[in-house]
Design brief:
161 residues; 7-stranded mixed beta sheet
Length: 161
């Protein structure tokens, strides 16, 4: 894990991870600590599951050239947390419903079911950011938007890159 880059008001936490399966568990522990510090323990279990799926996808599928790592970014947005996973691959993940016999391919189905909204945003030079927003239970912030998937530049209003 590389040193953290956090903005001055501590509303964003960014980390870089090796493209290795052990990074999934390390990122989960890091998110738990971050959410606890922000007082968002009510979304912890769902957020950790969503993050696990997104980081696992990046570890398994993203082409990461030397010097390029997977980056996670957690953004506190009022009563919501935005989870972003950046990688150097331009290939966007596709939501599909796997058959009963398939052992892989359910990650984005879980993200779709659990997140208030999620999407994919191209990065300026190379790669993409796959992101999901989760809102604390009882908040009106995310109501009525569940399942909305945004791709590309439509995400700019959400603070994506």
């Amino acid at each position: 894990m590389k040193p953290e880059r956090t903005n001055p008001n501590e509303r964003a936490v960014t980390r870089r991870w090796a493209r290795h399966p052990r990074s999934v568990g390390l990122a989960r522990a890091d998110l738990r600590k971050t959410l606890s510090g922000w007082g968002l323990a009510t979304v912890e279990e769902v957020a950790v599951l969503v993050l696990s799926e997104l980081v696992t996808n990046a570890v398994r599928h993203a082409r990461v050239s030397p010097g390029r790592e997977i980056e996670t970014r957690y953004l506190l947005q009022g009563e919501s947390v935005r989870i972003e996973v950046h990688d150097a691959s331009d290939e966007h993940p596709k939501l599909k419903v796997p058959s009963l016999g398939e052992t892989h391919g359910r990650g984005l189905v879980l993200v779709e079911a659990l997140a208030d909204r999620w999407g994919v945003t191209p990065r300026p030079v190379v790669g993409k950011s796959v992101w999901a927003v989760l809102t604390a239970p009882g908040s009106d912030v995310g109501r009525g938007m569940k399942g909305v998937v945004r791709h590309g530049e439509a995400d700019a209003e959400m603070g994506g890159t």
